[in-house]
Amino acid sequence: MLNKLKKLGPGLLFAGAAIGVSHLVQSTRAGADYGFGLIWALLLVHLFKYPFFQYAARYAGATGESLLEGYYKLGKGVLVIYLVLTFATMFTIQTAVTIVTAGIANTLFGGTIGTEIWSVIILGICIAILILGRYKFLDNLMKVIIVMLTVSTMVAVFLALKDSNTTIAFEQILPRNEVGIVFLIAFMGWMPAPLDISVWQSLWTIEKKKNIEIKTKAALFDFNIGYASTIVLGIGFVSLGSIVMYNSGETFSNSASEFSRQLINMYTNSLGNWAYALIGIAALTTMFSTTLTTLDASPRAMHKTTQLLFKKNFVFGYKFWIGILTIGTISILLFFISEMGFLVKTATVLSFITAPFYAIVNYRLLSSCYTPKEWRPSTGLHILSILGIVFLIGFSIWYLTIL
């Protein structure tokens, strides 16, 4: 068992990247607006996205390559499409997670220096961790963060249930108006995470392999632990939103600082002063882990992609892309600092619309001759993959028809 725990890492990094805006912001809002009525969407999207995320650990464990090498084998055009999609979305995604993190930090520490300054401070801390500590430090830090996040969130849910006098209804709801449908698509777009994080998962698995031998079964075990935690915590944040905020009449602000203040104060007012520190820790660790992992993963992916496309080893490529991403993020922050809601919605919807591409490519790669025969999808995974692709394409078309 101890040996298995040592090999945990990429799956927890996946969880750290996934458990962020989708959980703290979208899941809490789902609970606040619909009670437990969207639990079906949370579970369904986890089910249908599962094989495409799992394929990352499966492929990396079986071949010793990241999905990016696999994409290149499928055709240079596939990797070019990945490059374009990543470059088009990574700045918005990084800005969205950073601004939420900064808003929470600003609220917790008295709001004296402003969200803009906190954004720069948080990015600076993340850069220092990634450049000085490298992957090994990130790997170890994330284990601590995920434990803190899980414990604080589950304790908050337990105490909220204990103190609540409200009857809990589990009637499931399908939004029918345009606003509700757009929210549903955004909710599922980042639940548990955008599908391009499958690429990050494979890169982290390869990086972990440099320090310790990881067989394919161990890589899958690691991933399943991380994936299960996203389900548990997703339900946890929906529960908190439902128990504390449902039918409260509160309308969330699009300002990061104001949203964070509303979120934490509503818990405090409903549950008592004890909730301030607990919810604050849960919220801050949630978003900091996402900000840190996304700042590592996008540059790591872009560095590897350019290496493959140009067949050249860029010595400072990873640091170069971290710099580009940081500059782009700060630039967007200067113009959209008060529009957290717009940034989150844009990032989540873009993620959902691009999901079918990653689903199809991952399925095609794992079913191809480039994956060892014994690690290709089973009949059950084949069926689930096809259903997942139909699900993702269908919901994307549905969304586009109401624009």
Number of separate helices: 15
Q: Give the radius of gyration.
A: 20 Å
Shape: globular
**CATH architecture term:** Up-down Bundle
Total beta-strand segments: 0
Rounded to the nearest angstrom, the distance between the terminal CA atoms is 51 Å
Mean pLDDT: 83
SSE string, helices as H and strands as E: HHHHHHHHHHHHHHH
Topology-level CATH name: Amino acid/polyamine transporter I
* Biggest sheet overview: none
Question: How many domains in all?
Answer: 1
Beta content comes to under 5%
Q: Give the low-pLDDT segments.
A: none
Q: Helix content range of the residues, please?
A: over 70%
Alpha-beta content class: mainly alpha
Q: What is the CATH level 1 assignment?
A: Mainly Alpha
- The CATH superfamily turns out to be Amino acid/polyamine transporter I
What report would you give on this structure?
By secondary structure, the chain is mainly α. The protein has one domain (9-401): Up-down Bundle (Amino acid/polyamine transporter I). Helix content is 80%, strand content 0%. It is globular. The model has no long low-confidence stretch (mean pLDDT 83).
Task: Sum this structure up briefly.
The protein has 15 helices and no strands.
List keywords for this structure.
single chain, 403 residues, mainly alpha, Amino acid/polyamine transporter I
List the helices and strands and how they pair.
Layout: H1 2-7, H2 10-18, H3 21-34, H4 39-63, H5 67-74, H6 76-108, H7 114-163, H8 178-189, H9 197-209, H10 216-245, H11 256-271, H12 274-310, H13 317-336, H14 340-366, H15 379-401
Helix pairs in contact: 2-7, 2-9, 2-10, 2-12, 3-8, 3-10, 4-9, 4-10, 4-14, 4-15, 5-6, 6-7, 6-11, 6-12, 6-13, 6-14, 7-10, 7-12, 7-13, 8-14, 9-12, 11-12, 12-13, 14-15
